[in-house]
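Teaching assistant's notes for section 4

Start the section by putting this record on the projector. Ask students to predict, before seeing the second block, whether Outer membrane protein beta-barrel domain-containing protein will look compact or extended. Collect guesses on the board.
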Amino acid sequence: MKKTSQCSAVIALLMSASAFADTAPNIDDSHNTKVIETPATDNSGEIQALVDLGWDSKYISEGRNNLDKGGIYWATAAIQKNNVNVYATVGRGDSQHYTEWNFGIEYGFNLTDNLSGSVGYQRLEFYGDERAHDNELFSCLEYSAVDWLVPSLSYTYSTEANGYFVELSVHSNWELAQGLTVSPYITQAFDFKYATEQHDGANHFQFGVEAEYLLPSNLVLSGHISHTIAQEDIKLEARNNGVTGSLDETFAGLHLSWSF
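Reveal the predicted structure now:
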């Protein structure tokens, strides 16, 4: 099984809490839309931590549904010191036997006042009908000069597949009320031997709306609703496997995180 990397999901979560950032963040919809936030600039050297619990109605990655039925629960624990994040994430299917573990380390940095990025590594372990594992190297860039038009680029390389996956996204962040941010987004994804070996190029197009609400005591409630449109890579794979019917996917998710 393949999935795109966290790719700054943890940074986005850590930056969401008011304790970590003063500006309205972009929201990561956990394991699919990869959006990064300006890395922390805290020079105190203090260790900060985060716990996140979430659920997605389907487990969608690379524009594909990874589970035969139901959705998936997620739990993440992360520790941040300055711009370095160490995290562990576990996912468990809510309607079928499937468990996934991700262990990773990520470094966030600022290239300019408005251009930020991150690089990282993660180990993936899959437990389901088949036992599998993977190692991934990932990087992200985001340009955040204006909140209503924030482009980002993410890259993930898989050692098992010996291929990579690229996503170009644009978010538009709108603070509708105190502590409430709504972010429509679009993403164009390209596969190069990461998800399939038979075709390189356009994989899927995705759009949706993400929302985040800052609660007291460093709690953050976030959610999303998203829709994917299959492109040539997914269509070719479906034809080769004899799959018919719609290849597009609609899914939603909800997360609650606590930073301390």
